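Subject: complex prediction, re-run

Hi both,

The earlier run crashed halfway through, so I resubmitted it with identical inputs.
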Amino acid sequence: MHELSFAQQILETVQREAAGFGGVRVTRVKLRADEYLALEPASLRFCLESISQDTIMAGAEIEIEEVAAPAGAERPLFGAGLVIEEIELDEQDG
Amino acid sequence: MSKTVKLEQKVQAKGYEIALELREMFRKRGIFVVNLIGSPGAGKTSLLEALASRIRGRAAVIEGDLATDNDKRRIERAGLRAHQINTVSACHLDAAMVRDALKEFPLDGVTLLFIENVGNLVCPASFEIGEDIKVAIVSTTEGDDKPAKYPKAMKVSSAMVITKTDLLPYITCDVDRMERDVREIVPDMPVFRTAATTGEGIDRFLQWLEERAAARK
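This time it finished cleanly. Structure:
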């Protein structure tokens, strides 16, 4: 339900990080999500694809790994839960 | 030429900052906040009415509905301070709505705040509104497969309350199945069986809430 809010933050973060490299395209984004968030991967992917059109991240492959919380762990409430592990950059042609 | 850049960058959904601020404020003021989520008609307001006599003076309620202030008036009649948020069309309360409501709702002397979310087992599960815990309310009359059908609502909750147990003789509902199913999703989930009309289970649930509130200090 709140995949769009996360997608917006992911796009902003990726744009900011990739800007430092100048003249690149982002071809892959690897995300790690706490299963507590119960993020719907298809929905997150759809949101990212929609809002990243015409940006540095357009067409990037989105990898989402869901990670189980340790058994008996106190459920994280804020801040934690979704991490951009890594991004893959390609120098643009021409 | 392709290059992989490791980021390990945490991502917060936009709007979470407000929820964080709210929680910080509640903590500083020593207020334990419970976000009640459940389908329309699950018995959220009735549960609060049943709790009211036991928590008068130290508890307050923020009610969330699309329309009417019916629930606020019910809670006030039961003896608790209450404030009504009307979302008009939003299917869930969000942190900004709660922040705005608090501007007109002083919580002097309140150590226990209930926020009764809009009746909905889907959307409220995705939003933090400054609470310490969410509690899922599921009635015996909704169908005993509801915990299984709404795993996210269960995952984000710290307890499940099964309401309207007094109706069990008149309906088909496997309450044990509800408990089993929720524990498939959350193995250690505390489950409480209550009947607001008779008061059954209310004290036990309140005791658990107070223990949780004390543990948080």
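Chain B touches chain A through 33 residues (CB under 8 Å).

- K.
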